[in-house]
Automatic annotation (TrEMBL), chain A:
It is a multi-pass membrane protein. This is Protein YIP. It holds the Pfam family Yip1. GO terms for molecular function: small GTPase binding. The chain crosses the membrane at residues 79-100, 120-143, 155-173, 179-197, 209-231. Residues 19-29 have a biased composition (Polar residues). One of its GO terms (cellular component) is Golgi membrane.
From TrEMBL, chain B:
Coiled coil: none annotated. It is a multi-pass membrane protein. InterPro entries: Yip1/4-like (IPR045231), Yip1_dom (IPR006977). The keyword Transmembrane helix applies. This is Protein YIP.
Length: 233, 282
């Protein structure tokens, strides 16, 4: 029996969006409609981004002093970048961390006791995803409390892109020389922390801004040190 | 048929038209048969159905006295479709299904080997469509018309088991990580394409990503048997390239061309991470 259910694009979850339902993706979700949480169409606005824009933002995340990142994303903050940068970083830390441990043991002479530690994946996932989700959330609430107007999606976007430097620095960290590894991680951590700090300062101008900026700086440095100590020791 | 109702119980005005509409739909579906889209291969026989005697109407008016005037609800009272007479039923009797809708072979009482053989042949044909070169590859509409989830399930479990066998310590954690990454990865990749504004069908995409794991399964099996690191690296690179080639046309045609790389990069990332797991586990 081919009785069709009423095809409301707002209520259905992510099952079977056939070609005919593409017109439903343009209907406006009424604000305050709780069913929008379970519908894909209410999240597509955060993925409305092209390849060249993503590359542009990635390059922009590498410049620590500029402070102009928010002007890039204020119109169209995307969540695609933070999600896949975090995922790539988790994979990099797990795989290159294992490889670095292997190289370190071979360099030290006793290469027979190394086995692939699959726990690196778990620890990396919890650390990176936890950091990328919780820290911007915390700063959002802090800034709301302090009175300035903050946008949570833009915070997630900025902190997510700030992790890109760590992906690039994961490769040089393979070199099994301890001093070199510390230099690399401190440099990468400082660059990333300056990126976060300068962007926060350009976002929130006020008397309490300094403490907020310094707190963000130190959190980013702490993440860098944790990465070095846990994965590349 | 509808005229005979009026002399026993007065139905509500709108419900009579609803009953007519539903009857028309039943008749139309019996006449027109299954879906109008031609599949790439003969469709599987219809699923088992509750046997219904075709001579009965589901809307049999009952003989209860007319309801009080204030109570205008219609009396649907179908006592259920009448069961086939008990005298003709015997264990394993195949005539019960003959009176169901359509004339599909009965899948409920066929030998188990027939069912398994049908599913296996479907897996093999889907595999040939997805992973090996064939003229339908460029058209995602035809590529996996008759998708199923058995094949992807077998491939994911096989890959997890192979990795677990290869590992010398923490075997169960390796299986758990591999299975979780592959299963969650397939779902997340599909959601990624949908969020980027692409047009795919959710389960068809899950099915396709599962079938594209077949080359990595072969690679993992070879790496299980031969433990040389250089050989493993070469085998993994070759099978990785094969898997990516298999998934490329489907994923890239589903999204806007300006976002093609955004849709393809996560697929590549997942296969590289699985490939790395294969090399590193020893």
């Amino acid at each position: 029996m081919q009785i069709l259910p009423p095809n409301n694009g707002g209520g259905k979850g992510q099952g079977y969006p056939s070609l005919a339902s593409s017109s439903e993706t343009f209907e406006q979700q009424p604000t305050g409609n709780w069913r929008g949480v379970f519908s894909i169409t209410s999240y597509t606005q955060y993925f409305n981004i092209d390849t060249d824009v993503v590359l542009n933002r990635l390059m922009g995340s590498l410049s620590p002093i500029d402070g102009s990142f928010f002007s890039k994303i204020v119109v169209n903050p995307d969540i695609y970048g933070p999600i896949w940068i975090s995922t790539t970083l988790v994979f990099m830390l797990a795989s290159l961390g294992n490889w670095a441990t292997y190289l370190m043991e071979k360099h030290a002479g006793k290469g027979s006791s190394w086995t692939f530690d699959v726990n690196y994946v778990n620890v990396a996932a919890i650390a990176i995803y936890g950091y990328a989700i919780a820290v911007p959330l915390g700063f959002y609430f802090l800034l709301q409390y302090l009175g300035s107007n903050a946008n949570l999606v833009q915070f997630w976007c900025m902190w997510g892109y700030s992790l890109f430097i760590f992906i690039l620095s994961a490769f040089p960290l393979l070199i099994p020389v301890e001093i070199l590894r510390w230099i690399i991680i401190v440099a990468a951590g400082a660059a990333s922390a300056c990126f976060v700090g300068s962007n926060l300062r350009s976002y929130v101008d006020g008397a309490d801004a300094t403490i907020v900026v310094i707190a963000a700086f130190f959190l980013q440095m702490a993440l860098a040190v944790f990465i070095k100590v846990w994965f590349f020791s | 048929m509808s005229q005979s109702h009026s002399d026993t119980i007065p139905l509500h005005a709108s419900s009579q038209s609803d009953i007519d509409e539903i009857e028309n739909l039943i008749n139309a579906s019996v006449l027109s048969g299954p879906a109008t889209v031609l599949p790439a291969r003969p469709p599987s026989p219809q699923r088992a159905q509750i046997p219904v005697s075709s001579s009965s109407s589901p809307f049999i008016p009952s003989n209860i006295p007319p309801p009080p005037l204030s109570y205008q609800k219609p009396t649907p009272v179908p006592a259920g479709p009448p069961l086939p007479p008990a005298s003709s039923a015997s264990p394993g009797d195949r005539t019960i299904s003959a009176s169901g809708f359509g004339s599909a072979p009965n899948t409920l009482t066929e030998p188990v080997w027939d069912t398994v053989k049908r599913d296996l042949s479907r897996i093999v044909s889907n595999l040939k469509l997805v992973v090996f070169p064939n003229p339908y590859r460029e058209d995602p509409g035809k590529a996996l018309r008759d998708w199923d989830l058995w094949g992807p399930f077998f491939f994911i479990v096989f890959l997890g088991l192979t990795l677990s066998w290869s590992a010398s310590v923490k075997k169960s954690e390796v299986f758990a990580v591999a299975f979780a990454v592959l299963a969650a990865g397939a779902v997340i990749l599909t959601l990624n394409v949908l969020l980027l504004g692409g047009k795919i069908i959710f389960f068809q995409s899950l099915s396709l990503l599962g079938y594209c794991l077949f080359p990595l399964d072969v690679g993992a099996l070879i790496c299980l048997l031969k433990d040389n690191v250089i050989l493993k690296a070469i085998v993994v690179c070759v099978t990785l390239a094969w898997s990516s080639w298999a998934a490329y046309p489907f994923m890239s045609s589903a999204v806007n061309p300006r976002r093609k790389a955004l849709a393809l990069y996560p697929v590549f990332l997942m296969y590289v991470s699985v490939g790395f797991l294969i090399i590193a586990i020893d």
